[in-house]
Amino acid sequence: MATSNDSVELVGDEAVVNLARAVLFAALMGAFAFVSFPNPLSPAPITLQVLGVFLAGIMLGPVWGPAAMLLYLVAGAVGAPVFAGGASGLGVLLAEPTLGYLWSYPVAAAAVGLGVHGGSLGDYRDTSVPVLVAAMVVGTVIIYALGIAGLMAVLGLSFVEAFTAGAAVFLPAEAFKIAAAVGIVRSDAIAAT
């Protein structure tokens, strides 16, 4: 009786590559959290994390972009110091003023990915600049809607106070991040293929 020693492929190469990209983007989000500046007008700092959300949605699409953001949240919840200012732990996701922003990241990455890729995962470099910008504006609205809700819930702020401290003061920084994301995805040096 002959036995076969052929290997069995349990996971396809594409799934392994996409998972590796998601892990890479989760790590990138952790690095972006360390680029943090206090904002005297808000309880939330200015970070590069929103740029990471944009890039994950654009480059990984509407499935793997949110997966990367979920991996990032899990890493922070279990103790990796990947949240703004090196914070970590489940308490940051449940009781800190920034909880709404953090929970918005997978949703926003999915929205950006859907806006850029629609129903099929094509080459993001073929997407027009107006479509890229529109997708990121939708992602920004999601991030700030949940961020405002988090500030209202944790700090007891009114909507106007939460909007002012949690969204309005960040809009110039978000315009910069949108421009940076467009520049990055249009760069010939960057390709997630």
UniProtKB/TrEMBL annotation:
Subcellular location: Cell membrane
Signal peptide range in chain numbering: none
Gene Ontology molecular function: any one: biotin transmembrane transporter activity
Protein name: BioY protein
Membrane topology: Multi-pass membrane protein
A GO cellular component entry from the record: plasma membrane
Family to which the UniProt record says this protein belongs: Belongs to the BioY family.
Keywords carried by this UniProt record: Cell membrane, Membrane, Transmembrane, Transmembrane helix, Transport
Keyword rRNA-binding: no
Domain of life: Archaea
PANTHER family: BIOTIN TRANSPORTER BIOY
Residues passing through the membrane, by range: 15-34, 46-64, 70-95, 102-119, 131-155
